[in-house]
Amino acid sequence: MDPDRVLEGLDPEQRDAARSVRGPVCILAGAGTGKTRAITHRIAYAVASGVVTEHQVLAVTFTTRAAGEMRGRLRDLGAPRVQARTFHAAALRQLSYFWPQVVGGPEPTLIDSKLQVVGRAAHSCAIQLDRTGLRDLASEIEWAKVTQVRPSDYEKAVVKAGRTAPMAAHEVARVYEAYEEMRRDRNLLDFESLLELTAAMITEHPAVAQRVRDQYRYFVVDEFQDVNPLQKLLLDAWLGDRDDVCVVGDPSQTIYSFAGATPSFLTRFSAGYPHATVVRLVRDYRSTPQVVRVANGALRHARGPAAEHRIELTAQRPDGPDPSFSEYEDEPAEATSVARKIAALIDSGTSAREIAVLFRTNSQSAAYEQALADNGVPFTVRGATRFFERPEIKQAVHTLRGARHGNENEPLATLVRHILTPLGLTEAAPEGREARERWESLAALAQLAEDVAAERPGATMGDFAAELDARVATEHAPEFEGVTLASLHAAKGLEWDAVFLVGLTEGMLPIIYAESDEQVEEERRLFYVGVTRAREYLALSWALARSPGGRKSRKPSRFLDGLRPASPALASDRSERRRQGKVVRCRICGNSLTEAAERKLTRCLDCPADYDEELLERLKAWRSETAREQNVPAFVIFTDATLRAVAEHV
Ligand code: ATP
Ligand code: MG
User: Fold this and answer.
1) Among protein residues, the one whose CA lies closest to atom 26 of ligand 1
2) What are the structural domains of the chain?
3) What is the pLDDT of residue 637?
4) Is 572 exposed, middle or buried (0-12, 13-18, 19+ CB in 10 A)?
5) Does residue 225's CB lie within 6 angstroms of at least one atom of ligand 1?
6) How many Å lie between the centroid of ligand 1 and the Cα of residue 38?
């Protein structure tokens, strides 16, 4: 592709970044400013202008989905063979490749979760824990490994890091040591050891280093604010003494410091590479001005090192709907209302694929799964077992490969459906969570066959099998035509037209165990990540009680302060009425009218009746001006007293 064509669709700063093809480059910018877009174009530009070949590039992303999206964009830009992978996937490939010649013997088995081995290790130390306790302990061991703290140094390291260990530090250290021993004895590899071992293989074996460095000459790392010391170690091993590395990130989106990541690798990048090109982007291309206002407001009170680098986002897109703030009596009511709103959005033409429900903890997912199912809305849960690892998918891929010919006259999509039907792909989704998940996976494969057939008319079963092989190799899961349910952590880097941020109560966001200022700040950044996933439609909600009739002891999240209307009950009514097409606003304060709508009133009962048209116009102008200045949504309610005071002056 002509290099100049690759630069089309970039703004001047993004172009600067894309054109800086050599040497260290750092892009520091807020959410939705086109960082990922800029680096993707930068790679394509470097390839198109002959600076590197596609095979010499290694692009590292945070999730397999992000890697898949980047590969898709690179394909469109004429660089389909560039490797875009997660740190883990890249490391696994290198380790498997070099294992026979460097280490020899049976390859270790990669474990997705530590829980089982940690459980056995705790048992061997005579420590009994419930599942939550085990999970906390596994996370703690993960933190220690990521920050390269050995079991013998653990006790000192927790004190130094100011961390609260999940149990007595000497006990954690004992279990940690037992865990490592068991893991090695059984030839198991967790994610941390995978990265550490790969880095060691490169640094300790000059021949391996030579091979790896000959192959990869050009590195790009997205979401660099959440890089942890082990990932940095591996990146340094890849680089050696070279400096063709481009990193991008947003310190305000650091959401993994609890797990040992640190934004200082990003913010201090220039200290390590004083000649680095540093690019800052401020234009937000993703979200409407209404969403951007909430995003900027969400960080207004942010504190700590990450906040020092913050730059306010400037919206580029045209106006969209006001974000909604809704309060509910209880969680099932919240889930039901969200599901109904989603059904209405889909009815009015929004694709289900373009809608997401985001929550703080995976345990919040079930209520939404149920409510969406009750409303006949298809959905998919992110962050569950990796797609190609799911048993039903392994079986389906095997069967499809075995099928590779069939009735030649039958269209590919129909053929694939026929093959998948006996495996559980019924016409409609079945009841029950497990059956439904299985069905969704198979439906995603059927959808992939349709996509392949649409892209390449006349595609055969052989073409489909080849597509599957390529996707299995790169862990590129197909998209499912359904609403995404995801935790805020799993949502980073992604975007949807409509985003529902649910469960926004104290105790959930910030999560109950976020006690220190640093922890609360990380929760605030999670909130920011959630808000900035929305392109157009943003709905924020919370419930006062857990279950119907329960004690209404929950409070709205502190992160909503200054963003939400003073009277949330009205807001919830308002969105409900808007859904039903019944919303009427007070002509004076701009707030929605509830019962008043039924009585055909055009002002709140609280607002003065004696204002003339001209004064009303001036009040309206004042209100939008103030809202803009204070960065609050325009429908924030102003009290009668404020209005009267203002009316004296405007
Ligand atoms: P995040 O911090 O959430 O990862 P980001 O900075 O990586 O965000 P991108 O995902 O690259 O942002 O871009 C956000 C959206 O804006 C995408 O839909 C992208 O296609 C679009 N976009 C980026 N730059 C431009 C541009 N110059 N013109 C038009 N659209 C753009
Ligand atoms: Mg991005």
Assistant:
1) 10
2) 3-86+218-225+244-281 (3.40.50.300), 112-189 (1.10.10), 322-382+483-584+591-601 (3.40.50.300), 387-473 (no CATH)
3) 43
4) buried
5) no
6) 8
Residue 286 token pair? 């993703």
Confidence at residue 611, expressed as pLDDT on a 0 to 100 scale: 63
Contacts of residue 416, defined as CB under 8 A and 6 or more positions apart, other chains included, come to 400, 445, 446, 449, 461, 464
User: What's the pLDDT at 62?
Assistant: 86
**How far is ligand 2, taken at its centre, from the CA of residue 127, in Å?**
42
Residues 6 or more apart in contact with residue 163 via CB below 8 angstroms: 143
Ligand nearest to the CA of 250: 1
Could you tell me if 504 and 556 are in contact, meaning their C-beta atoms sit under 8 angstroms apart? yes
Q: Is the peptide bond before 510 cis (omega within 30 degrees of 0)?
A: yes
- Which among 285, 489, 527 is the best mutation to test ligand 1's pocket, defined by most ligand atoms within 8 Å of the CB? 285
What pLDDT score does 172 carry?
96
The CA 174 to ligand 2 mean position distance, Å, reads 40
Q: Residue 584 has what pLDDT?
A: 57
The pLDDT value given to residue 501: 98
CB-CB contact of 324 with 539 (8 Å): yes
The continuous run of DSSP H or E covering 537 comes out as strand 534-545
Instruction: Write the pLDDT tens digit of every residue in 452-507.
Output: 888 888 888 888 888 888 777 766 777 677 899 999 998 999 999 999 999 999 99
Angle ∠(101,104,110) on CA atoms, nearest 5: 110
Q: Tell me the β-bridge partners of 288.
A: none
Distance 426 CA to ligand 2 centre (A): 37
Substitution candidate for ligand 1 out of 15, 16, 28, 36 with most atoms within 8 A of CB: 36
> What is the value of pTM for the model shown?
0.79
Q: Is the distance from the beta carbon of residue 42 to the nearest atom of ligand 1 less than 6 Å?
A: no
**Side-chain-facing half-sphere of 534: CA atoms under 13 Å:** 28
- Of 445, 319, 437, 333, the closest CA to residue 385 belongs to 437
- Residue 15 Cβ contacting ligand 1 at under 6 Å: no
pLDDT score, position 636: 43
Minimum CA distance residue for ligand 1 atom 19 = 34
Say which residue the tokens 């157009």 belong to.
536
Mutate which of 37, 69, 255, 282 for ligand 1? The one with the most ligand atoms within 8 Å of its CB, which is 37
Annotated binding site for ATP: 29-36
Going by alpha carbons, the residue nearest to atom 24 of ligand 1 is: 34
CA-250 nearest atom, ligand 1: 2
ipTM surpassing 0.90, yes or no? yes
Q: Is 14's C-beta closer than 6 angstroms to any atom of ligand 1?
A: yes
**Using CA positions, which residue lies closest to atom 21 of ligand 1?**
285
Q: Among candidates 26, 90, 33, which has minimal Cα distance to 57? A: 90
| pLDDT value for 598 | 42
Nearest CA to ligand 1 atom 11: 34
Alpha helices per DSSP H over 108-257? 115-124, 131-146, 154-161, 169-185, 191-204, 206-215, 229-239
Count Cβ atoms within 10 A of the Cβ of residue 614 and give its class: 0-12 exposed, 13-18 middle, 19 or more buried: exposed
Query: Which segments of the chain have a pLDDT < 70?
Result: 382-386, 405-408, 433, 474-475, 479, 565-613, 616, 620, 623-624, 626-650
Distance 366 CA to ligand 2 centre (A): 28
Per-residue tokens: 603: 């002002």
